[in-house]
Request: fold
Amino acid sequence: MPVTDVLKVGIVGAAGRGASYFAPFLANPRTRLEALCDINEGRLRETAAGVGVQKLYKDYEEMLEEAGIDAVVIGTPMPLHAPQAIAALDRGIHVLSEVPAAVSIEEARDLTLAAARSSASYMMAENYCYFRENVLVGKIVEAGLFGELYYGEGEYIHELKGLNEITRWRRKWQTGINGCTYPTHSLGPVYQWMKERVVSVCCVGSGHHYRDPRGDLYEQEDSIKMLCRMERGGLVEVRLDMLSNRPHNMAYYSLQGTEGCYESSRGTGGQPVIWLASRSSGFEWTPLSEFEQEFLPEEWLNPPKEALEAGHDGGDYWVVEDFVRSILDGRKPPIGIHEAMDMTLPGLVSQQSIQQGSCWLAVPDSREWVGENSDD
Reply:
């Protein structure tokens, strides 16, 4: 589908998670919020009234066919991400999809093939990769100051038992399956820093200690640890815990190289710290913030008001910005189809691993599904 200077955007799931994308698109002079879709018609009308969008749909396929949109944001529950993305890609409509990209390996393959045959582009909206601290660490890594990277950690610890009862799809797709069902927030930034895919995983859990309001044990073990063997031999540990009774930890990351290391802050406070052999006379931590002026791009040092007000530490704003640039400026999406698979597939294979006694299992490379080389 040809795109003019202004990208016409539709959002599905617009009365829920999709609403968080209103502000970034409305603030972008290169986009127009054209159509909204949600199965909850009452909430959709209320939501749309605040942004002045006239084209409202209950049926997603109708929006794709009738609204005249160039791109669609998929902000629906997890099991809808892949089929809705495929439906758009097959119509030549660009896709920005919430995480994860798919809920099964079969779906992941179908989505990869759809992206390969489509004239439109696909991007996954992993907003934790756009946290200011994670962007800064990435720039320092690109400068070579960490040396050779060989170990990393990512944690997503967020008690969601109550939310399971409000958004009931979570009870099946997030806590109703054992394994690392929601991996991309934890794995995504570390994967981007290391710039290599996960080739095999081993998944273990801490057992079952919580029941839902109906008295049923959650199928997912309380705290999940996914060990990831990386392409060049390194190791990444991913922890997922959506059930343990505790305050929200948001996210935690660490990174180790031969010449540097990084530790993010935890939920208990403190500040992110870094050690770089080339910048230190000994083994002492330095606040990460001291490197902002040297390494952060100008748009991150002086972000627009909309970025400061956006959710997830500005991540929602910068996801949209990169998506728009990839389409209108002809750039490669930073989290395109293969990057999305590299963040999603390890979690899907982890579910098989924990079912099979926590054995190590190989993670498919989506590039092989479409005959591409992983080094391309």
